[in-house]
Amino acid sequence: MTIETISVDTSRGVFTARAIGDREAPLVLLLHGFPDTPHPFDSLARRLAESGLRAVAPFARGYHPSPPFPEPNETNSSAFETLSRDAAAIISTLSPHHRASIVGHDNGGFAAYYAMAQAPGRLARAVTMTAGHPAAVFRNTSKMPAQMWKSRYAMLLQIPKLSDWYAARQGVH
Predict the structure, then answer these.
(1) Rounded CA separation 57/44 (Å)
(2) Are strands 27-31 and 13-20 parallel, antiparallel or unpaired?
(3) Distance in angstroms (rounded) separating the CA atoms of residues 167 and 140
(4) What is the DSSP string of 90-147?
(5) pTM for this entry
(6) 37-54 pLDDT tens trace
(7) How far apart, in whole angstroms, are the C-alpha atoms of residue 130 and residue 146?
(8) What SS3 state is found at 54?
(9) Domain assignment of residue 21, given as a range
(10) What is the enclosing helix (H) or strand (E) of 44?
(11) How many whole angstroms separate alpha carbon 37 and alpha carbon 62?
């Protein structure tokens, strides 16, 4: 089986994803973290497909070629709520009549937690990796200067020229 690049046309935009497995098989949605891409899921996706599942790893909103984040304004929800709504839309498009499983790594894990809260009836199973529950993480991070220091990359990469430099250095287009 070969991983293919697909376009998923949802009510929230067109998302590009890496996919493998029978289109009629139960869906497992793989949500990447920051500043990753779907590519690190390739090995897991192959194993899932070999076990009879359909693995789909979309490029998250904000990662080319998927849609950008909307300009900030007071009506925008948090990034994780936005990403979880995107995940729900992808699930609804690819698996309209069946519940799906979701695997989230890092920020994808936060999005998975939000998806579990927003659309529990659409999910059969959920796995989060390297992401504690968002309420606990945000509550405790301010009490842990060492963790704040370790997470500084997330803030630094919000600087446009720095994020472009980092993406070029990592080979991300």
Answers:
(1) 10
(2) unpaired
(3) 30
(4) HHHHH-TTS-EEEEEETHHHHHHHHHHHH-GGGEEEEEEES---HHHHHHHHTT-HHH
(5) 0.78
(6) 899 999 999 999 999 999
(7) 17
(8) strand
(9) 4-132
(10) helix 42-50
(11) 11
